[in-house]
Design brief:
Helices cover about 70% and strands about 5% of the residues. The protein is mostly helical. The chain has a single domain, classed as Ferritin, core subunit, four-helix bundle (Ferritin), CATH 1.20.1260. A two-stranded antiparallel sheet has the order 1-2. The longest helix is centred in the C-terminal third of the chain and has 30 residues.
Length: about 180
């Protein structure tokens, strides 16, 4: 039985997230509480690594991108927390969120060794891969698995911002690669 794997990222030799979807195209089942935990985890990870980019980055574009990541991802987490409270749902840890956390620890361990232009290149490469993986997860795992209409709508509302982050990271990647 074949499986497609989303988000297996090779940047700096790291696995950011491994989200398996059966060959039938049907996403593995996650409860809404697990989906909420994945969303909160993904946002927290990106905001935390952006703080490192503000400290270690050199490029003004990288620093501006990092500030945007902190603001946008913190804002989404605030909305998610408010929705979870409203729905009386406590996010539940799961294999997907654990994989994201493991990848974040590895990314941080590698990025913390770098400064300046080398940091900029590695951070932005990671952001391109990470946002591509998160988009895949939103489309192929989180939205299809979510049962609650309000949570599903939040994911659909956030998706264009994730796509915009990916596009901006790709643009910056072209400038810092030079």
């Amino acid at each position: 039985m074949g499986r497609r794997t989303f988000g297996l990222l090779s940047g700096a030799g790291l696995v950011v997230a491994c989200l398996a979807v059966p060959a039938t195209g049907r996403a593995q089942d996650l409860s809404d509480a697990q989906v909420a935990h994945v969303a909160v985890t993904a946002n927290t990870i990106d905001a935390d690594l952006a703080k490192l980019a503000l400290e270690r980055g050199r490029s003004s574009d990288v620093k501006a991108f990092a500030r945007m990541m902190i603001d946008d991802h913190t804002g989404v987490n605030q909305k998610a927390a408010a929705l979870a409270k409203k729905l009386n749902v406590t996010p539940v840890a799961n294999d997907v969120s654990a994989s994201l956390e493991k990848g974040a620890r590895e990314a941080r361990a590698n990025l913390v060794k770098l400064t300046g232009a080398a940091f900029d290149r590695a951070y932005i490469a990671r952001e391109v891969e990470y946002h591509a993986a998160v988009l895949g997860a939103i489309d192929d795992l989180l939205i299809p698995t979510t049962q609650n209409g309000e949570l599903k709508e939040l994911l659909k509302t956030v998706r264009p911002a994730v796509a915009a982050h990916l596009e901006r990271a790709r643009q910056i990647q072209q400038t810092v690669a030079q």
